[in-house]
Specification:
It is a single chain. By secondary structure, the protein is an alpha+beta fold. Helix content is 22%, strand content 35%. The chain has two domains: 5-108, no CATH class; 124-284. The protein has seven helices and ten strands. Strands 4-3-10-9-8-7-6-5 form an eight-stranded antiparallel sheet. A two-stranded antiparallel ribbon has the order 1-2. Strand 3 and strand 4 (141-148) form a beta hairpin. Helix 1 packs parallel to helix 4. The longest helix is centred in the N-terminal third of the chain and has 16 residues, at 36-51. The radius of gyration is 23 Å and the shape is elongated.
Amino acid sequence: MRVSSLSNERVIDLVSAYIVPVWVSRDSYQLGPRPKEEKAELSRVDRERSARHLDGGAVCVYLLAPDGTLKTTLKVQKASKPEILIPFLEKLIETDRLPPRQPEARRASAAPKRAPRRSEKDGLFLHVLTRFTQHRTNYGVSQDWAELTAEEWRSFVPAADVRAGASWEVPGKVADKLFRYFYPPGPNWRAADSTVLNRSLTATAVTVSDKKVRVSLHGTLELSHPFGIGTEGRVRAKLSGILTYDPGRRVLTSFLMASEEAEFVWQGKGPPHPDKMVIAVEMERAP
């Protein structure tokens, strides 16, 4: 929905003006334990939905009155289409004669800004993005951040006396720390569930000077990552990249890596489900 309905300007206007939006993760991946009060409220809403025979599911739009009474629901298969969600919202607004919210109320219910990421001293964050390009493009973009220590990212850059054309292997532990974030968008998105099965990552000094060193990166990856509960999934990718390094200041000035030839194949009880995907990595400077 985030790349369809929730990116639609009309949907954003309606939700912002008339509804207090709340996002709740049923799976709670990468989140802390759910509070007892929240569990109880979800159970109450589920019981009411079931008693009234309304649509539901792991991904669903629930509209509640201010007193908590469940008004109506819309399954994600329909809610992900703006041409269906917009009249659905407009009908509720008209039927209940909802007044527009005051600007102060909108700002008060907005989600807080994400705190800036801070690395260890001289550490580095790499922003990882993945996306399906074949059958499940509506899943949107998955993003995560891999943090490398100064010692780890320096294994990507050459020794001081290197000459152009020299190559070296990035240590397996460093490559694994980054590659486990190359999982696809899907219901199971914890990097901790990734297992690197096979990988290679070679760095080559392309140009060398006192002010800038350019390094090319080439690698391959086979990553095990489930696609939901009780499934087996594999990411296979060929990777290429480029980084620049300032030897005088001893800092990375850019880092880019990508794969346009990645594939994710997952299998439950039935036949395997292959899908093409792309992977991108960019450097994110810590504040």
